[in-house]
Structure formats: C-alpha cells, structure tokens
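Below sits the subject:

***
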Amino acid sequence: MEACVISLGGIVQKLTAPDRDGKYDDIVLGFESVDRYSAEHPYLGALIGRYGNRIAAGRFSMDGSEYVLACNNSRHHLHGGLRGFDKVEWDVRQASSEQGDSLVLHYVSADGEEGYPGELSVTVTYTLTKNDELRIDYYATATKPTPVNLTSHSYFNLAGKRDDSILAHELEIAAAYFTPIDQDLIPTGVLEPVDGTPMDFREARPIGGRIDTADEQLQFAGGYDHNWVLDKEPGELGMAARVNEPSSGRQMEVYTTEPGLQFYSGNSLDGSIRGKQGRQYASRSGFCLETQHFPDSPNQPDFPSTILRPGKVYESTTVYRFSGM
C-alpha cells in the first residue's frame, strides 16, 4: 500500500489498496495538485479538530462559564470552526517501528483559537502497517479544560476508478443504537434503536438500498449523516464497521477506541468539485466513516464527556484495515 499525507490540514491525499486480484488503486477522493487543497473544499481527507462534528449554536457551558465558538455551519459550529485543524500547517517528521513507517504530525492550537479555552498540543501519527492498515493515533494535552474530539475526514470509494458512486458498497456497522438528529443535524440527546429503521446496518447492506426512503432522519440529512453508538466498550480497540465493494472485491474494516462512528454518504457533493483525473465529485461519490465522540456532547450531559482537563491526556486510535475478497 501507499499513503500520501500533506502538511496542510494533515490531509490524506492518496491511499492505495489492493483489489481481489491484488491490483492497487487510489481509494480516497481528493486532488492531484497539493495547491488545490488551499481553496475551499469539503474537508477532503483532512484532520478535524478541535471538535469533530457539530456544537449547537456554537455555544457550551463548562465549570460555570459560557464559551462562544466560531459558527461556520449556518448558526452552528462544525469541525473546529472557520479555521479548524483542516486548514492549519502541521509540523511533520518521519518515523518507523516494527509496525511500519509513520508520519508524525504536530500542531499547537493557541488559547482562544476559534473560541476554545486553553492551549492544546496535538500529535497525530499516521502509520502504514505491514498488515495493509492505515493506523491513526491521536494524542493531546491542554492547559485549560476544553472540549476535544479529533477525527479524520477521508472520503472513500473502494471501487477506485471503476465507479463514481458508492451506493453499491455494502456496509456493516456494529451498533444497535444511533443518535437521531433534528432539522439542523443536531442530536436530540436520546439514543434510539436502529431496529426496524434504515439505520440498521448490523448486517451488511448496500448503502443505496434504503437511502431515499421516506424516513424523517434521512430526509433531514439528505441521506446518511448520523452518529452510531458502537456496541463495544469505550476505550477498547474494537470493530466499528466493515465495507465491501462488489466490483473490485476490496474490503475495508474500521477499528477504533472511540464510542461513536459518523457515517456520511457524501450527500452534499454536487459535482462542482473536479478532483483526481478530472473526475467530478457528484453526490454520493464518496463516503466517510469518522470515528468520534458524539456530536454536541458539550451540550448533552447524557453523552460521554469530551472535556480534556490539564494533567490528563487525550488518546485515541483508529485503524482502517484493507484486503481483497
């Protein structure tokens, strides 16, 4: 396998994986020119922080004080704000271990950046392992209590050049519950069973099988853009999802220590972005599986806490494992 990462936004610019015949193809959406990433784009391949996903109204209260964040998704805060970690320059160095070759990225987010309290020191290590895995290890410390929810926003299409749609991909998510959303895609605060709904991916199903059904949750998001509550124990590196692509035979498994998984079916891609090989990225031409804590957790006391306090360490691991069926 081959992985290419750029310092701007810690973006995974290229990732190759084998098909059933052992042939390799690039399976992530993006641009061939590194300069193109400097213009606006929908977080293609980027590292996300300080807070992946949404914080309602860009506000939260902590320890008796209210904090106001930059709002960049209508009246809400999304993926770190106007200048999140996807838009900053990361320091990069190479490393190697018995697992494989790594790139170690480091960034220090200043106290008050995008409205967040405290200085946050972040290290993200990408490792391309000898077992055909892309492993991402996150590590952070803070000088003041602050919400932290780091993730990666790669758009995958396991068909490579074979198909511009991801609707035939077969998806399995190890979750019996999800967090339903309102019209602004903000969680309502409850955990709802997937049983009997289009959110049930406990057995592998085509992504496109139920995506256009008259379901309120799908209509709110224009498809899938929801957080699933993973069945495993939080902190345990366990199975989150598995995706099979029938035409190429590629399979991707996702393992994480995080309690949640955001599945996004690329609904907002509209063909206006011209990516690699001049391909127009139309709606549902790529999907994201973003490992995470739950959206809007700073405003949802029943959700797992995302507050990192001084003297504590934020640690998280996600592994994308590839094979040919």
Observations:
- The chain has one domain: 3-324.
